[in-house]
Design brief:
The chain is an all-alpha fold and 257 residues long. It has helices at 3-14, 18-41, 48-71, 75-79, 82-94, 121-127, 129-133, 135-159, 169-180, 192-218; strands spanning 222-224, 234-236. Helix 1 crosses helix 2 (18-41) and helix 3 (48-71) packs antiparallel against helix 5 (82-94). The longest helix is centred in the C-terminal third of the chain and has 27 residues, at 192-218. InterPro entries: K_chnl_dom, K_chnl_Slo-like, Volt_channel_dom_sf.
Length: 257
């Protein structure tokens, strides 16, 4: 591969130019569009255009994945990452029309591709004042949405087709939310041993994580209060001294008028 081509790819994926940032924003937009497509097609009858779109998305993902492999400096370490394995599984699922729909359920792992966009954090801080002011809340909301979407996708993939209560993503999402919030109306249940084990896993692991993320979302662990000496902005809610320079800080409380 010509070095100039690899240099261009490295600049796009890891560089700090305006073109590189636009490129990574485009990848983020592609991830979001991909998720929307996965959700919408769960409500539609199986059709040729869905398979064709799957194939096109799979080819784009293949190009993106190949480019990332090309620019990585530690190939073995890159392939051992869970996010990379999720990318491979998602890639296989989108290309499933070439070999049947047996791997279709793996496409939910494409959602984890959003985690790759965390490399944009620094640029998001620079470009969006709203993001700088509410970074912790925004990231907690993103993590919560990814968790809910992956859990919903897993339930849909395993139950759709043989559980009459799970007809589309909306039904799976309804079950996920009622389980995570411990509401449990009982009108939708997961059948069989596999379904019961999945329900236990969602309740055992999901409720704790869901509540933790929700707590961060509605009550952030950090508060914004600029230190007059070093300028550190984020501090623990009960902090008395700045962790960076030790200066006494005065954080406003909810009880102050």
């Amino acid at each position: 591969m010509p070095s100039t081509f690899k240099t261009t790819l490295t600049e796009l994926y890891e560089g700090d130019s305006a073109r590189a940032h636009r490129f990574r924003y485009a990848l983020l937009a592609f991830d979001i569009v991909t998720m929307i497509f996965v959700i919408i097609t769960s409500f539609l009858a199986h059709a040729l255009w869905v398979e064709v779109t799957d194939l096109v998305l799979g080819l784009v993902i293949l190009c993106d994945f190949s480019a990332r492999v090309c620019v990585t400096r530690r190939t073995l370490r890159y392939f051992l990452r869970f996010s990379t394995l999720a990318d491979i599984a998602a890639l296989m699922s989108f290309l499933a029309p070439l070999a049947g729909e047996g791997l279709g359920f793996l496409r939910i792992l494409r959602t984890l591709r959003l985690l790759h966009t965390y490399q944009l954090l620094e640029r998001l801080r620079q470009d969006f004042r709203l993001f700088r002011a509410h970074e912790e809340v925004i990231l907690a909301a993103l993590n919560l949405l990814v968790f809910i979407f992956v859990t919903t996708g897993l339930i849909y993939a395993l139950e759709h087709g043989h559980n009459p209560h799970i007809r589309n993503y909306a039904d799976a999402l309804y079950f996920t939310i009622t389980t995570l919030t411990t509401t449990g109306f009982g009108d939708i249940t997961l059948d069989g041993t596999t379904g019961r084990l999945l329900s236990i896993a969602v309740m055992f692991f999901g409720v704790t994580l869901f509540l933790r993320l929700a707590q961060v979302l509605f009550r952030p662990t950090k508060v914004r209060c600029e230190c007059k000496v070093c300028g550190l902005m984020l501090h623990d809610a009960d902090a008395v001294h700045c962790k960076h320079c030790g200066t006494v800080i005065h954080i406003g409380t909810e009880g102050q008028g």
